[in-house]
Automatic annotation (TrEMBL):
Every Prolamin-like domain range: 15-89
Official protein name in the record: Prolamin-like domain-containing protein
Record-annotated membrane-spanning stretches: none
Organism, as annotated: Rhododendron griersonianum
Pfam families found in the cross-reference section: Prolamin_like
Amino acid sequence: MGIILTEGQQDFLTECRKKLAPGQCGWQIGNELYTGNATVDQQCCSRLLDMGEKCHKELLKNYLSSPDHANINATEVWQRSDILWSRCSKISAHP
């Protein structure tokens, strides 16, 4: 069983997801975090940073808490997340 969210938490995550849409940014970020195979482009890095670290971490925590994703190595995903955030901070024209 995953984390049980309050309505406020669900609304927060919904708003976070909207910040990555439209386009392929959610897919690029997920692919890089979960498979390590993709490289998030500069535009999606900018969207990730605009979304904010709290949104990013809460979405990731919610995803990893699902029983459907129990076979994912969460430690590796969190490490990739830190690397991605750092890289995006360097390549994106973001304050």
